[in-house]
Design a protein that fits this description.
It contains 18 helices and six strands. It is mainly α and 431 residues long. The longest helix has 25 residues. It binds acetyl coenzyme *A.
């Protein structure tokens, strides 16, 4: 197999080496291109651009493969343990028993927020978007832990990772409660990660919320299946900001803002909006599926199809089963979820969807599970933040530990005006 490519330009030939990954993905190393030829590459949306080498996550969209540190996610899903996945992503291998226990202890010890941070929640209007609050609170958290602005060794890194992963859960729960006028509930050191989140969100001072194990498992699955997806928009944002040597808190806060965008983190919210519209519009699921098949309607079945996974989404397969377990356990009878199940049933039997390989995606199932367990739609993307946080930390660390990494500085092709002259304000037309 070739180990380089030739470029012929302006009567000269240039040779660029091919780089091969451990799963045999190949790319052209063009790092000398501009210096040698004066040319740059133009790739809006970066669909053909590798911005880094990474040893964290491998995706093969055609084959429906997702590996974290070389381990298929199906294997992690057999023992749903988000915290184990988090450690594995960040530190590159499964933790041994002592490391797992030490990380748990660090998470438990760090669940609280500084008391002064509680008042920061009061500064937001009750209509503040939860993702804006979450991003702001991560930067605020950094202000209370500025000793971690520079990280010297692995132990310090483990401590800051534990603080972020533990406290994001408290931030999410306080965000939820503050805007509903509910009293803040502190973490319970006897509870595991997901049960503790549900406790902080749903308990009352006079009544403890006890999470069903099926719900706890489903939440662990949602989090671990969202924990990383290589160079997506928010992860690339974290790396981009981190490349300037911005601290971990600031870089993660930027990732939250990127995830906030409806084209990124909002897909399961759109699934819920669709279900609401079907319900309130009195349309049947059958009629909606017909509309989605009719190109002139411009209606799409939200939560079906995927840009990367062209045969099936391995995460959706896992969550489909989890959804069935949760619905059975909670004896769910919600008109919106009944519509969702009907849409799934119809689409999976319909030649339009089957022939185009348009299967329900991870957002479809995460949306209906989150609703079934009582998470309101405005908190869905914050739940995504909790899940994606270990991936962001892992990518920030990978870049931080790479002595050869550079500040990100893409180029452009300038298309603006040329040869313009400055005109003093007094000489310009009034308009
Ligand atoms: N409902 C109805 N028809 C659809 C849908 C859908 N959800 N998705 C794709 N199609 C049809 C298209 O009209 C097209 O039909 P044609 O071949 O007859 O013209 C065919 O399937 C292929 O569609 P594309 O748009 O080319 O597929 P693409 O890979 O570009 O889009 C996408 C993938 C954007 C996810 C799309 O399936 C979609 O809009 N889904 C609904 C929104 C959604 O759930 N988005 C979140 C997915 S998560 C993610 O992608 C990161």
């Amino acid at each position: 197999m070739a180990d380089s490519v030739e470029l012929h330009y302006d009567g000269k030939s240039y040779s660029y080496p091919l780089v091969t990954g451990t799963e045999n993905e190949r790319g052209i190393d063009i790092s000398r291109l501009r210096a040698e030829t004066g040319l740059i590459t133009l790739d809006p949306g970066y669909g053909n651009t590798g911005a880094c080498k990474s040893a964290i996550t491998y995706i093969d969209g055609e084959k429906g493969i997702l590996h974290y540190r070389g381990i298929p996610i199906e294997q992690f899903a057999e023992h749903p343990d988000f915290i184990e996945v988090a450690w594995t992503l960040i530190f590159g291998r499964l933790p041994d028993q002592n490391e797992r226990a030490r990380f748990s202890a660090r998470l438990t010890a760090n669940a609280h927020l500084h008391e002064a941070m509680k008042h920061a929640f009061d500064a937001f209007p009750v209509s503040a978007p939860p993702m804006a609050v979450t991003s702001a609170m991560i930067n605020t958290l950094g202000c209370f832990h500025s000793e971690f602005y520079s990280l010297a060794d692995e132990m310090q890194f483990e401590e800051v990772a534990a603080r972020l992963i533990s406290k994001i859960r408290t931030i999410a729960a306080f965000t939820y409660r503050r805007f509903r006028g509910m009293p803040y509930i502190y973490a319970d050191s006897k509870l595991r990660y997901c049960a503790n989140l549900l406790h902080m969100m749903f308990s009352m001072p006079y009544e403890q919320h006890v999470a069903d194990p099926a719900v706890e498992d489903a939440l662990n699955l949602i989090f671990l299946l969202h924990a990383d997806h290589e160079q997506n928009c928010s992860t690339s944002t974290v790396r981009m900001v981190g490349s300037s040597k911005a601290n971990l808190f600031a870089s993660i806060a930027s990732g939250v803002c990127a995830l906030w965008g409806p084209l990124h983190g909002g897909a399961n919210v759109e699934v819920m909006d669709m279900l609401e519209n079907i319900h309130s519009g009195g349309i049947t699921a059958e009629k909606y599926v017909e509309l989605a098949k009719n190109k002139e309607s411009h209606v799409r079945l939200m939560g079906f199809g995927h840009r990367v996974y062209k045969n099936y989404d391995p995460r959706a397969r896992i969550l489909q089963k989890a959804a069935q377990r949760v619905f059975k356990k909670l004896k769910v009878n919600d008109p919106l979820l009944n519509i969702a199940r009907k849409l799934e049933e119809l689409a999976l039997q319909d030649d339009y969807f089957v022939s185009r390989k348009l299967y329900p995606n991870v957002d479809f199932y995460s949306g209906i599970i989150l609703r079934a367990i009582g998470i309101p739609t405005d908190m869905f993307t914050v739940m995504f933040v909790i899940g994606r946080l270990p991936g962001w930390i892992a990518h920030w660390k990978e870049q931080h530990d790479d002595a050869t990494s550079k500040i990100a500085r893409p180029r452009q092709i300038y298309t603006g005006p040329v040869n313009q002259q400055y005109v003093p304000a007094k000489d310009r037309p009034v308009g």
